[in-house]
Specification:
With about 450 residues, this protein is of the alpha+beta class. Among the domains are: about 1-45 and about 165-200, no CATH class; about 55-160, Beta-Lactamase, CATH 3.30.450; about 325-455, Histidine kinase-like ATPase, C-terminal domain (Heat Shock Protein 90, 2-Layer Sandwich). Helix content is about 55%, strand content about 15%. The chain contains 12 helices and 11 strands. The protein has helices at about 1-5, 10-35, 55-65, 75-85, 115-125, 155-160, 170-205, 225-280, 285-315, 330-345, 365-380, 420-435, and strands at about 90-95, 100-105, 135-140, 145-150, 325, 350-355, 360-365, 390-395, 400-405, 435-445, 445-455. The longest helix has about 55 residues, at about 225-280. It is rod-shaped, with a radius of gyration of 56 Å. The two termini are about 70 Å apart.
Length: about 450
């Protein structure tokens, strides 16, 4: 019941019902005002002897003629003079039963003093639809009492306004238009407010804060849109709670990884120390092979722990980053020189082709060395069977391109040195922060890592 009470549908049904009831009320009010207070409509009531058109005038003239039935000549003359004064611009004439003209007032045409029946008929024929407007009526509706004539210039008839009640149709139409306009205005305001609230909700959904989650909005009403706003706020609360739990879990994970990395380094150092001591002892061939395997696995585990610790610091934004202007050609040449003995020991053919001129870029040299170390280590781990590595670097328009290619089976294939992929993840994060593009193309014929700068970053 509460939902129906605050429903938008209920509100609009109320608007329609009020409109249905209010329409006849408007007609009643307008009618009462129209007929009782005509001055509100700037209209005047009809005068006592006014006339509005030829038909009304003719009807009034015949009424006056009936009322003069049996009247004396003096009374007839007196009344005709009164009527001539009452009807503006009118002229009157009276011919008695004997055909003698008894009275002619304000009629310019000089009619005969004596009339025959033929002359009377000809007079009525000539004045029909002529100017001035002419109407003829028998006194008392009896030809034996004579007839009286009324003439009014048609220009005067055109100037005469209809009685105020003749405008009732116009007032009715005006009332209907006012009502319809009011109903449309109320409906427009109703839907405009709904649209405004929906746009406010849409803007709130598109407006994200620092956390990427929209801010809650104020619930204005308890209708359908209000329920939607309330549900939106509940969703925001759940998202914020979920984001908070995610951040807490991420912080806990990073703390756990950092603690494990630190705790694992201590036993690894101990194992390396004892392995070094065993290496000074006289061992059998099998013992020496086992010792070499221990050294290799300890070194691999050390690198894995270092990568895990570095990835945790990078993802949390706590890894030291000091970008500056450096010659990247010199840096790549130095890294290749450091790794050359390793590749030579593994039996690799090493091809190095670098630009002759320095290429400067805004990078962190330690980060770039770490990127190159991880890529070179990736070649050792995944492409030892190919026995080939090529490092090429060239200057391009507004930047450089660096390529490290091998002829191994590809990073997707199974290999003895395959790990968790933390090395390449660290490469991606570091290059992204240094605003360098990078791509890894791997097929069954080999893998190519590309690092490029397509535009000069500010240095």
């Amino acid at each position: 019941m509460k939902k129906i009470k605050n429903s938008l549908l209920k509100k609009y049904i109320v608007i329609i019902l009020v409109g249905i009831v209010w329409l006849p009320v408007c007609f009643i009010i307008s009618s009462l005002l129209f007929f009782n207070v005509p001055s509100l409509f700037q209209l005047e009531k009809e005068p006592e002897f006014g006339y509005t058109n030829g038909s009304d005038l003719e009807q009034q003239w015949h009424t006056e003629a009936r009322q003069l039935s049996g009247a004396s000549q003096a009374d007839i003359e007196k009344r005709l003079r009164e009527l001539q004064q009452a009807y503006r611009g009118a002229g009157v004439m009276w011919v008695d039963a004997a055909g003698k003209k008894q009275l002619q007032l304000h009629i310019s045409h000089n009619y005969p003093e004596s009339w025959t029946a033929a002359e009377a008929i000809q007079f009525m024929k000539n004045t029909y639809s002529a100017d001035p407007f002419t109407t003829v009526a028998f006194i008392g509706q009896d030809p034996n009492q004579g007839f009286m004539v009324l003439q009014v210039p048609r220009d005067i008839l055109k100037e005469i306004k209809a009685p105020y009640w003749y405008n009732y149709g116009f007032v009715s139409v005006l009332t209907t238009l006012i009502f319809v306009t009011g109903f449309l205005a109320v409906s427009f305001i109703f839907f405009y407010r709904i649209r405004k609230r929906m746009l406010r909700l849409q803007q709130a959904m598109n407006r994200h804060g620092d956390s990427g989650i929209p801010a809650p909005i104020k619930v204005s009403n308890q209708d359908e849109i209000g329920h939607l706003e309330y549900a939106f706020n509940e969703m925001i609360d759940k998202l914020q709670s979920s984001r908070k739990r995610e951040q807490e879990e991420e912080a806990l994970r990073r703390q756990l990884v950092a603690s494990l990395s630190h705790d694992l380094r201590t036993p690894l150092t101990t194992i390396q120390g004892h392995a070094y001591r065993l290496g000074k002892e006289r061992l059998s061939e099998q013992g020496e092979a086992s010792l070499k395997l221990i050294d290799a696995k300890v070194a691999y585990l050390g690198r894995l722990i270092e990568n895990l610790f570095s990835y945790t610091l990078l993802s949390s934004g706590k890894y030291p980053f000091n970008p500056a202007r450096h010659d990247i050609v010199r840096l790549v040449r130095g890294a290749a020189a450091n790794w050359y003995p390793v590749f030579e020991q593994e039996g690799f053919d090493f091809e190095l082709e670098l630009a002759e001129e320095p290429i400067y870029a805004r990078i962190d040299p330690q980060w770039m060395e770490r990127v190159l170390d991880n890529l070179f280590q990736n070649v050792i781990n995944h492409a030892a069977s190919g026995q080939y590595i090529a490092v090429t670097m060239s200057a391009v328009e507004q930047g450089f391109e660096l390529s490290i290619a091998d002829r191994g089976p590809g990073v997707e294939s199974e290999s003895a040195g395959k790990g968790a992929g933390l090395g390449l993840s660290i490469v991606a994060l570091m290059l992204k922060d240094m605003e360098l593009e990078w791509a890894l193309e791997s097929t069954a014929e080999g893998t190519r890592a590309k690092i490029a700068q397509r535009f000069l970053n500010e240095i």
